[in-house]
Amino acid sequence: xxxxxxxxxxxxxxxxxxxxxxxxxxxxxxxxxxxxxxxxxxxxxxxxxxxxxxxxxxxxxxxxxxxxxxxxxxxxxxxxxxxxxxxxxxxxxxxxxxxxxxxxxxxxxxxxxxxxxxxxxxxxxxxxxxxxxxxxxxxxxxxxxxxxxxxxxxxxxxxxxxxxxxxxxxxxxxxxxxxxxxxxxxxxxxxxxxxxxxxxxxxxxxxxxxxxxxxxxxxxxxxxxxxxxxxxxxxxxxxxxxxxxxxxxxxxxxxxxxxxxxxxxxxxxxxxxxxxxxxxxxxxxxxxxxxxxxxxxxxxxxxxxxxxxxxxxxxxxxxxxxxxxxxxxxxxxxxxxxxxxxxxxxxxxxxx
Length: 352
Hints:
Blueprint: E1 2-10, E2 16-23, E3 29-33, E4 39-45, E5 51-53, H1 61-65, E6 73-75, E7 81-82, E8 86-89, E9 92-95, E10 104-105, E11 118-124, E12 127-136, E13 147-155, E14 160-169, E15 173-174, E16 178-180, E17 197-200, E18 204-208, E19 214-220, E20 232-233, H2 243-248, E21 252-256, E22 265-271, E23 277-283, E24 287-291, E25 300-301, E26 307-308, E27 315-319, E28 334-335, E29 341-351
Antiparallel strand pairs: 1-2, 2-3, 3-4, 4-5, 6-16, 7-10, 8-9, 11-12, 12-13, 13-14, 14-29, 15-28, 17-20, 17-22, 18-19, 18-21, 21-24, 22-23, 23-29, 24-27, 25-26
């Protein structure tokens, strides 16, 4: 596998952002920017041998600078939502930026998706990987601690995009990183994903309120439209009158994974009959958020001038559970000073 680099654009601060192209001998490519760690494109073969870009994204770099739907972005310090935009550590209250009503979403006003990372190409034998490094300073977006973060992307010979996350802080702090790619296995410009079939390795989910904040209740998926224990077509349940579906205008929920967390285990699978593509998701994280692009409304112009509309892509965001700082029975995203955050998520592609 080899990596090439080219100029991508200027940040608001006037710094040069680059885009790195990862490729393997099978013809697959992934374009990743050092701005926001964004997966700009991901091209894999279909059952006919045709190469398509299977992630949604903007046509121009400048569109990634503005507030948007987090296409392909690296999310941190805390992925997903924190209720009332505040939390406590040892009796000290930390107030975060409110960027979704009264709540804090995906790291705040300027999360990890809006910063320029330091890039390095790592070489091991015949394999090259892209390592991005960033120092999130104490108090950034309201979070405590100087947090050293690095994220490594590898495109393997078996068509898997492997993302390894590492972070450590000099104070106790919150760490919950994810990738926010929107996938459409028929190709980013092919319309909706309602005929995609999804399996999630989970028999329970965290019940959410109308603001998509988990209430603390854990509910079985059995007998509900949240049941993806077997490959299930998205359209089967997305228009249900089930309260959880109506609250979120579709799927935007966290499933509790049946994984140990010790090594990457299968969390989910997506199958698109039209292209024959399969995407398997492996992770060490305890949860995954299935989001079906419910709020894409045609205002985001994508690659090639495509207009992205509702349900044109789906996300599978591996994570600690949303709002876990409010619910002690949820796995905690709090890390002590010097305690290492070390997680891996893999998106692996194949065809039938």
